[in-house]
Design brief:
InterPro entries: Cu-oxidase-like_N (IPR011707), Cu-oxidase_2nd (IPR001117), Cu-oxidase_C (IPR011706), Cu-oxidase_fam (IPR045087), Cu_oxidase_CS (IPR033138), Cu_oxidase_Cu_BS (IPR002355), Cupredoxin (IPR008972), CuRO_1_LCC (IPR034288). The protein is mainly beta. It contains five helices and 32 strands. It has a six-stranded mixed beta sheet, with no helix packed on it. Strands 21-20-25-30-27-28 form a six-stranded mixed beta sheet. A five-stranded mixed beta sheet has the order 11-19-18-13-16, covered by helices on one side. Helix 4 links the parallel strand 22 and strand 23. The protein is globular. The two termini are 24 Å apart. The model has no long low-confidence stretch (mean pLDDT 94).
Length: 567
């Protein structure tokens, strides 16, 4: 079996080389992901979970800028699966991007799919995760992209690099939770614990012996590569008595700055330097949920890990806890994000589109839909829904990319609106109930190749409003502005940062506020955009772009590989 897989991968590599996608100098990393269930015990209970290679979190993948990954995904589990390479642009090759029924049909149990992931200019921390239903709760891992050969970090080389993956845990089966809240129309049950590198930490029951520990030496510096893999919560993170130096986010460098804490959205990655400059002792690193909405249930316990200095001393017991912002401190969350600025030096130039040719305004709302039965458990006995520009997205049963490439009719429509169909006071109080009803359709927005795009991402106060971490596949974008309230097209652009805006793939739109992003549409294909709060995705807060081919041979969508999963 392994010989057959090896031969097949060799055939894939030849296929890629003939397409001109695998330069002779590219380094190819080969990995095998076996999707299978494995038993795990946390917070006094045990269950089987879906994993990659039996590991939770999954394996850390290492590469250098410009390398290629070939990952053979074998599904030995009992449910459909896809794998998304979060933050990788996949130039001209969305076939391995991963979102179910957007760029591929799922990998069915007993089948496999060999994904090819071309790294381009990404450098820093990204991650990979399942992109079908809620499987990413346990199927996820870090993707660490180091500088290319003969280049260095834009900061002194750290003593060590440590992935820190924030996650969460349900005692119940995750898929059963999804089925229950989608059937009832209610909100999803909160998780039972947050995790750092798969462990809840000392403040949860039955967890002390397995708490993640990081041993450090005094006066040494460590690079923490932090991933927020939590399903439905932005998180505050800090290390007791230590300042953090933020140096990167979403696979790009930022101007270094010091902070006592970070705010990190689901889907986002942040790189920080930790200087071990305190008295030898044990110190907690901790993470807790940020929640801006009254009445939304969430786990309010801090997940912890331990920084332990090497040497002979009597450690504090318990270790010192970090001072984190209050759970509802919106200003703390927003103000941290505003500190992010691109490094923008000679070795790391930026290219912000200045001449915008396509202006879009997308509203992100939590909605309700009439109950199909007598009554549901959402507001006013309706069911929860969510929308972008008042369209609650319906996943097709054939993936959009295949339908676009093969010109299959009836799978999607290309009439996603450039602006909200109804113009109202988006962040006002006591909004009319009729505004809560979205349309349910499968719509895409078509972009011409090479257009300079600006999208204003506008939150609304329908059903109270909430922060929305918005993720765009296939691109990194410049966050040129953000603020509270309704976007003012005449005043707010005057305060845009067009000099050194951060380059990101996930941006948290503050509750009842907005963010403006820019990118050049130079990556042809089908690319998903969605909120990275998983319950919002389940309710329909998503859409897709089709970026058309350009005129040149290097500006066209590449053909699919021979082993694409079938619907």
């Amino acid at each position: 079996m392994r010989l057959k897989v090896k031969i097949f991968i060799q055939q894939i590599l030849v296929f890629l080389f003939l397409l001109g996608l695998l330069p002779a100098h590219a380094f190819v990393h080969r990995h095998r992901f076996v999707i299978k269930e494995a038993p795990y015990s946390k917070i006094c209970s045990s269950k089987n979970i879906l994993t990659v290679n039996g590991q939770f979190p999954g394996p850390v993948i290492y590469a250098n800028t410009g390398d290629t990954l070939v990952v053979n995904v074998q599904n030995d589990g009992t449910q459909n699966i896809t794998i998304h390479w979060h933050g990788v642009k996949q130039p001209r090759y969305p076939w391995s991007d991963g979102p179910e029924f957007i760029t591929q049909c799922p990998i069915r149990p007993g089948t496999n799919f060999s994904q090819r992931i071309n790294l381009s200019d990404e450098e820093g921390t990204l991650w990979w995760h399942a992109h079908s239903d809620w499987s990413r709760a346990t199927v996820n891992g870090a993707l660490i992209i180091r500088p290319a050969n003969k280049t260095n970090y834009p900061f002194p080389r750290p003593t060590a690099e440590i992935p820190i993956i924030l996650g969460d845990w349900w005692k119940s089966d995750v898929q059963a939770i999804v089925n229950e809240f989608l059937t009832s129309g209610a909100d999803a049950n909160k998780s039972d614990a947050f995790l750092i590198n798969g462990q809840p930490g000392d403040l949860y029951p039955c967890s002390r012996n397995d708490t993640f520990k990081l041993t450090v030496e005094k006066n040494k510096t460590y690079l923490l590569r932090i991933v927020n893999a939590v399903m439905n919560n932005l998180m505050f993170f800090s290390v007791a008595n230590h300042q953090l130096t933020v140096v990167g986010t979403d696979g790009a460098y930022v101007k270094p700055f010091k902070s006592n804490y970070i705010t990190i959205s689901p889907g986002e990655t942040i790189d920080v330097l930790l200087e071990a400059n305190q008295n030898p002792n044990h110190y907690y690193m901790g993470a807790k949920a940020y929640n801006s909405v009254v009445g939304v249930d969430f786990d309010n316990i801090t997940t912890t890990a331990i920084i332990q200095y090497r040497g002979n001393y009597t450690a504090s017991s318990p270790p010192i806890l970090p001072d984190l912002p209050n759970f509802d401190d919106t200003n703390a969350s927003f103000n941290f994000t505003r500190l992010l600025k691109s490094l923008a030096d000679n070795r790391h130039p930026i290219n912000v589109p200045l001449n915008v040719t396509t202006n879009l305004l997308f509203t992100f709302s939590v909605n309700t839909l009439p109950c199909e039965d007598e009554s549901c458990s959402g507001p006013n006995e309706d069911r929860f829904a969510a929308s972008v520009n008042n369209i609650s997205f319906v996943l097709p049963r054939i993936d959009i990319l295949e339908a676009y490439y093969k010109n299959i009719q009836g799978v999607y429509r290309d009439e996603f609106p450039s602006f909200p169909p109804l113009n109202f006071n988006f962040t006002g109080d006591s909004l009319p109930v009729e505004l809560q009803r979205p349309d349910r359709r499968t719509e895409v927005h078509v972009l011409e190749y090479g257009t300079n795009v600006e999208i204003v991402l506008q939150g609304t106060n329908l059903l109270g409003g909430v922060d929305h971490p918005i993720h765009l596949h296939g691109y990194s974008f410049y966050v040129v502005g953000a603020g509270f309230g309704n976007f003012d097209k005449d005043k707010d652009p005057l305060n845009y940062n067009l000099v050194d805006p951060p380059l990101q793939n996930t941006i948290a739109v503050v509750r009842n506020g907005w963010a403006a992003i820019r990118f050049k549409a130079d990556n042809p294909g089908v690319w998903f955009m969605h909120c990275h709060l998983e319950r919002h995705v389940s309710w329909g807060m998503e859409m897709a772009f089709i970026v058309k081919d350009g005129k040149g041979s290097e500006e066209k969508l590449l053909p699919p590989p021979p082993d694409m999963p079938q619907c």
